[in-house]
Structures are given as C-alpha cells and as structure tokens.
C-alpha cells in the first residue's frame, strides 16, 4: 500500500470513528431526554406546580422548609438569590406581601422581595428583579440601594452553578456561592433573622455548618421531600441571626452596664 493510500484509509477510519461517536452521543442525549420527560410526567411536584401556579417544582422545597420552620411572615423583607425562573420568589411574595388595595402603593411595611439571578426572571407582581451576578459587589450594592437602609428578615440562596458533572468541582462552586450569600447576609440581616442556603454534599459542608453555627442560634440541615432523592443537594436553615460582631459586643457592654 502506498503512503497516500494509507493516509486516505486513516482519515476515512478517523471520520468513521467521529461519526460513530456522534451517533452514540445522540443516542445518549435522546435516552436521557426521554428519561427526563418521563420523570417530569410522573413527578407529583411537577403536577402540583401546575395546579398551584408555580413556575418551577423547586417552589415546593421552600414551601416545605417554611412549613417546618415558619420564617416567612407578613410584612417581612426577603432577598432571593439565584431566583430564576421565580418559584421561590412566588412563594416568598405570597407569604410576606400584605394585601394592597387596587391603586394603592405598597408601603415598606407591606413586605418586600428582591430577586436576583444571572438569568432573566419574568415579572412577579411586587417583586424587585435584578438580572445580575450576585457575587459582584456592584450587585450587592444595588440590592442595598433598594433596601434603603432597611434591615432584612430573610436571605435565601437557591443559587447553583451550571453543573460540570465533576462532583468535586460542582461541590466547591456551590459552596463558594453559599459563602458569598452568607457574607452578604451578615451585612443586611437583622438580629434574629433567617438565612437559608442550598448546598451539595461533598465534604466541606461540615465546616460550613460549623461556621453557620457560630453566627446563628439554630442551624438545621434539611432534605425536603420535594428534593430528588438521587440529588446530593441539601439545605441549611439558619435561624436567629446573632448579629454582627460589633452589635454583639455592644450588647455585652450594655449588659455589663445594666448589672
Ligand atoms: C436551582 S436554580 C433556582 C431556582 C429558583 N429558586 C426557583 O424556584 O425558581 C439556580 C439558579 O442560580 C442561578 N445562579 C447561579 N450562580 C449565580 C450567581 N453568581 N448570581 C446569580 N444567580 C446565580 C442560576 O442562574 C439559576 O437560575
């Protein structure tokens, strides 16, 4: 066989291999898309989301967490980080908004929800929406501008990065988002406030829980029924924020003065 014949043969074998690879990739994609649509059809929370007019089945995770711990109350101020398509913001607004008469403006005491996401969120009546990267300081300043010096009752984070399929990487990325949300929460939460965040199990969540326990009176590790069993996601519900370090120091001094 001449060198040119060998080269033609090699390139034809290579293109055949590429074709085969694309073929098997399409089969895999088709199979997992089919599995996904089957799972969606049989999922009770997908059905319930349609009935209850929620944009996403994820809404029920917040419904369950709140049913258990009751941290969303009328008139509260709530920040929803990683809010698209808007399921959690729908739940939060239904819980914290007081009814306002038609034509009347919403007062600061009528409840407030600020929703932030990299992706667009279709409008939800009364909810302030920011399409920005939450981790940027400019975004956090934009939220504080909306707050206008008001302290927040609840900071929620359902933020999740685009998953790579490498669990260690995905775990590290989501824990970074948790830390970013916690850092922000510490600057806006009122004493006694609540912080809720989603994480993926992977090891470092244990240290993160210890950190949370140093800042909140109670920290619960939750896995709501609506969170898929096969998913390693979990939620920390942190209640009774102890306040910023300075606030705590001031309080100790006040106590000393008093006695
Ligand atoms: C699981 S979804 C949230 C679902 C939402 N809670 C609901 O009920 O509709 C996670 C969201 O986190 C968002 N996200 C990830 N990183 C973010 C970041 N740095 N800033 C803002 N949003 C982010 C993603 O764009 C995605 O929409």
TrEMBL record:
<dbReference type="InterPro" id="IPR015507">
    <property type="entry name" value="rRNA-MeTfrase_E"/>
</dbReference>
<keyword id="KW-0808">Transferase</keyword>
<dbReference type="Pfam" id="PF01728">
    <property type="entry name" value="FtsJ"/>
</dbReference>
<dbReference type="GO" id="GO:0008650">
    <property type="term" value="F:rRNA (uridine-2'-O-)-methyltransferase activity"/>
</dbReference>
<dbReference type="GO" id="GO:0005739">
    <property type="term" value="C:mitochondrion"/>
</dbReference>
<keyword id="KW-0698">rRNA processing</keyword>
<protein>
    <recommendedName>
        <fullName>rRNA methyltransferase 2, mitochondrial</fullName>
    </recommendedName>
</protein>
<comment type="similarity">
    <text>Belongs to the class I-like SAM-binding methyltransferase superfamily. RNA methyltransferase RlmE family.</text>
</comment>
<dbReference type="InterPro" id="IPR029063">
    <property type="entry name" value="SAM-dependent_MTases_sf"/>
</dbReference>
<feature type="domain" description="Ribosomal RNA methyltransferase FtsJ">
    <location>
        <begin position="54"/>
        <end position="241"/>
    </location>
</feature>
<dbReference type="InterPro" id="IPR002877">
    <property type="entry name" value="RNA_MeTrfase_FtsJ_dom"/>
</dbReference>
<keyword id="KW-0489">Methyltransferase</keyword>
<dbReference type="InterPro" id="IPR050082">
    <property type="entry name" value="RNA_methyltr_RlmE"/>
</dbReference>
<keyword id="KW-0949">S-adenosyl-L-methionine</keyword>
<feature type="active site" description="Proton acceptor">
    <location>
        <position position="198"/>
    </location>
</feature>
């Amino acid at each position: 066989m001449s060198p040119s014949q060998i080269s033609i043969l090699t390139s034809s074998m290579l293109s055949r291999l590429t074709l085969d690879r694309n073929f098997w990739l399409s089969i895999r994609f088709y199979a997992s898309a089919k599995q996904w649509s089957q799972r969606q059809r049989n999922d009770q929370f997908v059905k319930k989301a349609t009935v209850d007019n929620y944009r996403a089945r994820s809404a029920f995770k917040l419904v369950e967490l709140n049913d258990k711990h009751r941290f969303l109350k009328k008139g509260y101020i709530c920040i929803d980080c990683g809010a698209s398509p808007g399921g959690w913001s729908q739940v939060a607004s239904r819980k914290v908004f007081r009814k306002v008469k038609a034509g009347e403006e919403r007062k600061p005491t009528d409840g407030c929800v600020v929703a932030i996401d990299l992706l667009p969120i279709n409008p939800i009546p009364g909810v302030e929406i920011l399409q920005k990267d939450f981790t940027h300081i400019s975004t956090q300043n934009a939220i504080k501008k909306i707050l206008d010096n008001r302290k927040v009752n609840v900071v929620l984070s359902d933020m999740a990065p685009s998953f790579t399929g490498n669990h260690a990487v995905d775990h590290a990325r989501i824990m970074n988002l948790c830390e970013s949300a916690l850092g922000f929460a510490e600057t806006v939460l009122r004493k006694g406030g609540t912080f809720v965040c989603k994480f993926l199990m992977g090891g470092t969540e244990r240290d993160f829980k210890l950190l949370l326990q140093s800042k909140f009176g109670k920290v619960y590790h939750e896995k709501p029924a609506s969170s898929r069993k096969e998913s390693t996601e979990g939620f920390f519900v942190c209640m009774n924020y102890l306040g910023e370090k300075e606030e705590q120091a001031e309080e100790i001094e006040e106590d000393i003065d008093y006695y």
